[in-house]
């Protein structure tokens, strides 16, 4: 008999996506699963939409954050396997079956991860950029992974409970990173399986894309400094992205100097730096081409080289300042 999989979905004002999320989850090919939605004190009509589906609904009396919601879902689960995803993610028909099979193959001390489909639910330019970007950087070292993201995370329920679940007092959006690193120190293995996929609903415009880059960079930088691995090649916080930001900043300085001095050698240095940036990030740029047209790949490359690093770099600077001037919410722990 197939193992019972408990699908745990935190929801906070997710009325625009939660219905699609639940419809996709209930269409799973896996024959034995339950769905638990933990509503984090939503203020929209999420509850009305959730109650249309035969899932277990856990309602939190006040907002507690995604980590607390996921822990609450785990406490109400019955499955041998826990599968965590988000309210704006659509499971594919084979997602749960692949996750259960991967966990059976790798053993109970493995944390199994999946990724986004290259094509998002919506076809906006910046949504496609984000989905390809995350798919590429999360899977390029598979099956190795530095962390497993909670948009597609499967693990043995007893291992989850014995390790205390997600830390509820970490910086926002980093509970899965902290969880992954803590469980790895406890002897668990992080296994990325690119075949396990969910489709994300982004609805990204240019401002939303840049804001997402800024916010994630801010919190990641703060966390990474505290763990002494700011330069680590870690999933979407890759060496390629960090180099892209540094080269952008360096070329901005060279361009300013050229305007002031007129020295042509500065333009040559800029061209060499840009060529090196393209070479280091060639895998991502080819991923844009594989997933979309050549025209899209060229535009996505320009966005990655000329606008995206501005938001990431600004977020990194803000993260450094936050680390220096704010008190941590929890004791800092080294990753390894």
Describe this structure as you would to a colleague.
- Residues 328-336 have low confidence and may be disordered.
- The two termini are 38 Å apart.
- Helices cover 51% and strands 14% of the residues.
- Helix 5 (125-139) packs across helix 11, helix 9 (239-261) packs across helix 13 (308-325) and helix 11 (282-291) runs antiparallel to helix 12 (294-306).
- It has helices at residues 18-26, 46-50, 66-75, 95-106, 125-139, 157-162, 175-185, 206-226, 239-261, 264-280, 282-291, 294-306, 308-325; strands spanning 5-11, 33-39, 56-59, 81-84, 89-91, 110-116, 153-156, 189-200.
- The protein is an alpha/beta fold and 336 residues long.
- The chain has 13 helices and eight strands.
- It has two domains: 5-203, Spore Coat Polysaccharide Biosynthesis Protein SpsA, Chain A (Alpha-Beta Complex), CATH 3.90.550; 226-325.
- The chain has an eight-stranded mixed beta sheet, sandwiched between helices.
- It is elongated, with a radius of gyration of 21 Å.
Strands, helices and their partners?
Blueprint: E1 5-11, H1 18-26, E2 33-39, H2 46-50, E3 56-59, H3 66-75, E4 81-84, E5 89-91, H4 95-106, E6 110-116, H5 125-139, E7 153-156, H6 157-162, H7 175-185, E8 189-200, H8 206-226, H9 239-261, H10 264-280, H11 282-291, H12 294-306, H13 308-325
Parallel strand pairs: 1-2, 1-4, 2-3, 6-8
Antiparallel strand pairs: 4-7, 5-8, 6-7
Helix pairs in contact: 5-11, 8-13, 9-10, 9-13, 11-12
């Amino acid at each position: 008999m197939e193992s019972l999989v408990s699908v745990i979905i935190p929801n906070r004002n997710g009325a625009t996506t939660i219905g699609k999320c639940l419809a996709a989850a209930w269409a799973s090919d896996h024959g034995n699963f339950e769905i638990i939605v933990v509503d984090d004190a939503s203020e929209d009509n999420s509850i009305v939409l959730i109650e249309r589906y035969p899932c277990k609904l856990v309602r939190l009396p006040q907002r507690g954050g995604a980590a607390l919601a996921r822990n609450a879902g785990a406490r109400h689960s019955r499955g041998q396997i826990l599968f965590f995803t988000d309210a704006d993610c659509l499971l594919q028909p084979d997602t749960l079956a692949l996750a259960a099979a991967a966990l059976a193959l790798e053993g109970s001390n493995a944390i199994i991860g999946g990724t986004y489909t290259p094509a998002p639910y919506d076809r906006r330019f910046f949504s496609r950029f984000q989905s390809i970007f995350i798919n590429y950087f999360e899977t390029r070292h598979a099956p190795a992974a530095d962390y497993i993201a909670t948009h597609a995370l499967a693990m043995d329920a007893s291992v989850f409970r014995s390790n205390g679940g997600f830390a509820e007092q970490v910086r926002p959006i980093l509970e899965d990173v902290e969880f992954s690193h803590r469980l790895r120190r406890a002897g668990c293995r992080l296994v990325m399986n690119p075949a396990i996929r969910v489709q994300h609903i982004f609805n990204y415009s240019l401002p939303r894309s840049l804001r997402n880059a800024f916010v994630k960079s801010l919190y990641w930088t703060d966390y990474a400094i505290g763990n002494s691995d700011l330069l680590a090649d870690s999933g979407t916080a890759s060496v390629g992205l960090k180099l892209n930001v540094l080269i952008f900043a360096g070329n901005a300085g060279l361009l300013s100097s050229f305007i002031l001095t007129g020295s042509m050698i500065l333009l040559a240095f800029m061209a060499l730096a840009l060529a090196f940036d393209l070479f280091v990030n060639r895998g991502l740029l080819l991923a844009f081409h594989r997933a979309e047209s050549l025209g899209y790949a060229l535009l996505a490359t320009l966005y990655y080289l000329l606008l995206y690093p501005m938001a990431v770099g600004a977020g990194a600077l803000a993260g450094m300042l936050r680390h220096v001037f704010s008190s941590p919410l929890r004791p800092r722990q080294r990753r390894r």
